[in-house]
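User: Before I run my own analysis I want an independent prediction to cross-check against. Here's the chain; please return only the structure tokens and, at the end, one sentence I can use as a sanity check.
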Amino acid sequence: MTTGPPARHRLARRLGLFGFFALAFGSMIGVGWVTALGSWLERAGPGGAMLAFAIGGLVMLSIGLCYAEVTPMLPVAGGEVAYAYKAYGTGKAFLVGWFLAFGYISVSAFEAISVGRVLSYMFPTIDRWALYHVGGDPVYLTHVALAVVFTALITAINYLGVARAAAFQKWLIIGFLSITVLFIGAGMVSGTLANVRPLVSSSAEQGALAGILAVFVTVPFWFVGFDTIPQGAEEASASVQPRKLGSMIVLAIVSATIFYIVLILSVAMTGPWQAIVETELPTARAFALAFASPVWTNLVLIAALIGLLTSWNGFFLAGSRVLFSLGRGQIVPAALGETHPRFGTPHRAVVLTGVVTVAAPLFGRDALIAFVDVGSFCIGVAFLGVAFSVMTLRRRFPDATRPYRIPGGATIPAIAVAGSLFILAVMIIPGSPAALTWPIEIVILAAFAALGIVFWLAARKLRQQVPERERAYLILEEYANGGTL
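Assistant: Structure tokens:
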């Protein structure tokens, strides 16, 4: 008696082409351009920051092109998990997936902390009822409550269906672009290039180059988001051609690079940039000083809130899909790989992502930069895994169908590998100006790694019970043919 393939939970297919672009670009722009721009200027100056983002954008483009090739080749949920599995097998698929999941969730955590900061700038009276202090900074009950409310909103949207999440994202992106064109244009028209000087900051202890490098290594955190497209590839509607997914990845990266560079220039032109680097929300402060009108400041803050929600929604969706892919492949507890019978969403993975996210504000505002740095490291690991996967898949499966193929042979994947390795190296080499700091960043990374070990060991018996041929089908479906088995 022969048995059929194992039951494979499927996601609803309702994402259109603009939905994919909105998901990726909205995830990339986020709210960091409001909350972290001061640190970019302080470390590198406007010229140095723009240079860091330009070079970082090129590195991200090389990585994005790797995604552009492999995403339409393997359009299944979990993206990087599937690529690493087909190239290397279960162990490396878990390693890449676990780091990526934490990278995504760290962005979600960043947004949960940021929502209180943005709203308190608009409504200062909400800074009420300090519960305790972390690093001398109060953790307000109101900020925790705001994080809970907004996390519940994002969780509910993603729980109820990808169509709702996509519609939410599209309307937010339209609003964001409409508002940012206004205030960025106003800053460049009314400002002057004289305010941009000095172009490069020398405040870093090891000089201007160290400052530029310190901004450059955080670029994966600010650019991550284009890789939300692979996470949703399995949910593409029938009208979306696989090749177009690769094109959307490239378009999102180019668009985000232009946005960040133009924004830095516009803010620096509005007034002497040294006057805003130490302020709470430097982008909003710059326009407040330049125009002496709350209208422009409020426009920036409204755009920041929209960007926060688009990034939060995108990364929340992506993080839950990575956990779903690991669960569906029974690499981690299989409950994470189940879909809701009515909504077709990975409901348990969605709820877990929400629970982890809502805990972030308890660490206080000082955790913002820590989540940026640790998240950048984890995302860099995932990017490295994808670049290596592309090279391996080309070698092992040269005849596989590739709707989009990177031009230039092995050159771009090699650049992606080198760029990822460089970013990771300068974050772990002792004495590097961009090295992860002790204790908070090292502790967060160590705790995350320890949790990964716990998950891996807890699912060991489950993995042993699933034949590799079944796991290949669960992760890759029909794309399992010619896989690692």
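Sanity check: The two ends are 23 Å apart (CA to CA).
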